[in-house]
Design a protein that fits this description.
The protein has 13 helices and seven strands. The protein is α/β, with parallel strands linked by helices. It has a seven-stranded mixed sheet with strand order 3-2-1-4-5-7-6, sandwiched between helices.
């Protein structure tokens, strides 16, 4: 089942957070189906430029046509956003005015049963955002050790029954290879206490999240990319990040706080105000932004979304 329908989460809040200048250069690190990118492009004039990254060829093909109907002032780069700084440099772009990350898996990726992202459709265990990635969820499930599976489920999925689930996976795969999402769902359901099956949350949700993060190396990629992004931001430029689970949000929060706050010390008492070091960045929203009740009614996938914004206010040497 193929679909290109996707409702962008926190769309208005993200656009407002970017504080778009019509002649600025903006980067969408997670193009997807161009929900955010199309609205950014609409706000740019002939001098403005949009650069978008994605590693999903299907998303790129669809989004290129969508963006072309708005303007030609864009370029889509087929690459993981961890390579953004290097790819921009190749194009003689060293500074930009705004950067957007929407870290959720797009609705089409969830809804396309053959991609294997969802526990609601029976499909081969895949979960690759980049279909050229050699590592699939099937390989993780069938080849990783008991200890590694337990660690992944615990750290990336925050799954309380990590060991029991990993142990059951190893028992099953010793008899028969685990190939599909529904096979894995059945294993998970048979591993946990029966009372967990009657809760609102799907029992496989956290394990599937953990596998997706492992297959796509999401957390390490995010941390490196964010640190790179901070270095290419113009003065008064902003980074807007939308996260969908606590592990991502923790990385964003810690990364932003590290550069937006100066640790005080007793020596500051003897310095003039002009001599005290100022942070290069400020947090635009100290309290995380979440979807409104109206948005949640329209899009249930927005439920866990959180948005954080940071702005560069100083440049080194000023």
């Amino acid at each position: 089942m193929k679909s290109n329908e996707h409702i962008s989460v926190l769309l208005n809040e993200a656009l407002e957070g970017l504080n778009i200048k019509p002649d600025g250069t903006y980067v969408d690190m997670t193009l997807g189906r161009a929900g955010h990118s199309s609205k950014i492009l609409e706000r740019l004039n002939n001098k403005g430029k949009l650069i978008a990254f994605d590693q999903d060829i299907e998303a790129i093909t669809y989004s290129k046509e969508k963006l072309s109907s708005i303007s030609s002032n864009f370029e889509i780069i087929y690459s993981n956003f961890v390579n953004a700084k290097e790819e921009l440099s190749k194009r003689d772009i060293t500074k930009v005015d705004g950067i957007l990350y929407d870290l959720g898996v797009s609705s089409p990726q969830f809804d396309e049963d053959y991609r294997g992202f969802s526990y609601r459709y029976n499909a081969p265990l895949d979960m690759r955002m980049d279909l050229n990635n050699p590592l699939t969820a099937k390989e993780v499930v069938n080849k990783y050790s008991l200890n590694d599976l337990t660690k992944i489920f615990k750290e990336y999925g925050e799954e309380r029954y990590s060991y029991l689930i990993a142990k059951k996976i190893v028992e099953v795969r010793n008899k028969k290879e685990i190939n599909t999402t529904f096979e894995l769902v059945d294993i998970i359901k048979s591993s946990i206490p029966k009372k967990e099956l009657f809760k609102d949350k799907h029992p496989a949700k956290q394990v599937f999240q953990a596998l997706r993060i492992e297959v796509n190396n999401e957390l390490k990629v995010l941390e490196k990319s964010l640190n790179d992004a901070l270095t290419i931001l113009n003065k008064n430029g902003r980074i807007v990040v939308i996260t969908f689970h606590s592990l991502e949000d923790k990385i964003v929060k810690n990364t932003f706080n590290k550069v937006a706050k100066i640790k005080g010390d007793r020596h500051n008492d003897y310095l003039l105000p002009s001599e005290i070091k100022k942070p290069e960045f400020i947090l635009i929203n100290k309290k995380v932004i979440t979807p409104s009740e109206e948005e949640l009614e329209l899009n249930h996938r927005a439920k866990s979304a959180k948005l954080r914004i940071i702005e560069r206010v100083e440049t080194k040497g000023e």
